[in-house]
Amino acid sequence: MKFFSYYLIPLGIGLISLIALIFWHDQYRTSGDVPLSMHVAVETKAGLAPGAALARARATALSTGHDTHLSEAPVWFAFEPMPRAGRQVVEFPSRHALDVACWDAASLAPVGSAARGAGSGSLLASKAGFVLTLNPLPSELLCRARFAGPARLSVLQWPADQYELSVEQYHRKSGLLDGGMVVLALFILITALINHQPLYVLFAGWLVLNLRVAALSAGWDIQWLGQTIPSDWLLRSRSVTITLYGIATLTLYQALLKENIAALRYVLPFRIMQWLCMPMLAAAMFLPYGVYLPLLWGITVGCMSVMTVGLFKIIAESRNRVASWFAASFAVSFMATIAEVASAALGMRELLGIINSVTAALASSLLAALAVAEQMRIETEQRQAAQQQLEHAYQAMPVGLFTLDMYGHFLSVNPALQKMLGIASFVPGRTA
């Protein structure tokens, strides 16, 4: 029964879950979304009128996407919806979009505008970006959008029912990620508080921050526990979240590998990184998002390079399994960071299809948990070894040693005391 409960039930649950993921029907699977080609023109002079913007956009070549490369200049784009049966909607899925406004290109009549906090007409914020719900769709639309961060502009046309299903899928995935990571973090936090282990309190906080970094990459960070974050707070919260995640990662790294870092004489580089933490946090709170992000990327790549080299040196010299798990976690996070930077700076969007902050956050959380578990195993073995040494000393001591309960009965005696008192048989709590 014990073998069945301990091993077969968890194995069966894991096997059925794997079968479900691979073979069973996904009730949230969507279809019918089509990327639309568009003419794109960047606004180089403030106050560009819709008519002039439309003429400039039509003079450019068609494309299915536009990368801003951190530019915050407004982008005008014109596109023609596909003639399709049934009610259609148009999605602008960029998580870095701040606001969107659209006009009917034929008459230049406004059809709607929306920002993160509110929408009017037929435009509203939805999922990670915005959606146009005008019915029927005009033959050609002109839109203007503003972005912050490494944005990519694209336009998708959906059947209305499939888009609604994709919204359900979006919130379901967000809820699964939020709920799973928060429950795990709470479990670790409660365990840490019961056992008075500050390291695991730090790990619980790191898990929550890792969740928010993953949510940022997926466009789910516009909400927290089902509550919408105010639009005025969104960019600032992104800067602060990423910075706090870096600080927590550095602290966890040093807590797990403190002795190895000292042995490698890496104390000075890590002290410099510690000195950078508070200035970076202040910069996250006060610098504009577009100014802070390149600074953050540069420092992050430099710090992670030092930490990764340190990890591999620790592995090579000490064969430390904690360092091995942490190295794997860092390798995943480092590759995701490089992919995000290359994608934003060089337009290499295909890298994000291989590795991004969502997959990196989940994988690095698992690998970091294994590092913490390995550290727990080492500490448990050290405590057991210390207890065995103490027990051996207690038994071998030539001086009589004992403990009593409140009634004067012996709870424990060593062989020397048994010999002194002539105790032939000892029963804890009964021998007086």
Spans of 5+ residues with little confidence (pLDDT < 50)? 344-354
User: Which oligomerization state do the chains in this entry correspond to?
Assistant: single chain
User: How does the major sheet shape up?
Assistant: 7 strands, antiparallel
Mean pLDDT, to the nearest integer, reads: 80
Strands, total number: 18
Q: Please tell me the total number of domains.
A: 3
Q: Which structural category do the helix and sheet elements fall into?
A: alpha+beta
Percentage of residues assigned to helices: 55-70%
Number of helices: 12
For the largest beta sheet, what order do the strands appear in spatially?
3-2-5-12-7-8-9
How much beta, percentage-wise? Answer: 15-25%
For the record, give the distance between the C-alpha atoms at the N and C termini, rounded to a whole number: 41 Å
- Helix/strand order: HEEHEEEEEEEEEEEEHHEEHHHHHHHEEH
Shape: elongated
Radius of gyration of CA atoms, rounded to a whole number? 30 Å
What does this protein look like?
57% of the residues lie in helices and 16% in strands. The protein has 432 residues and is α+β, with helices and mostly antiparallel strands. It folds into 3 domains: 34-159, Immunoglobulin-like (Sandwich); 173-385; 397-432, no CATH class. A 7-stranded antiparallel sheet has the order 3-2-5-12-7-8-9. Strands 1-14-6-11-10 form a 5-stranded antiparallel sheet, covered by helices on one side. The chain is elongated, with a radius of gyration of 30 Å.
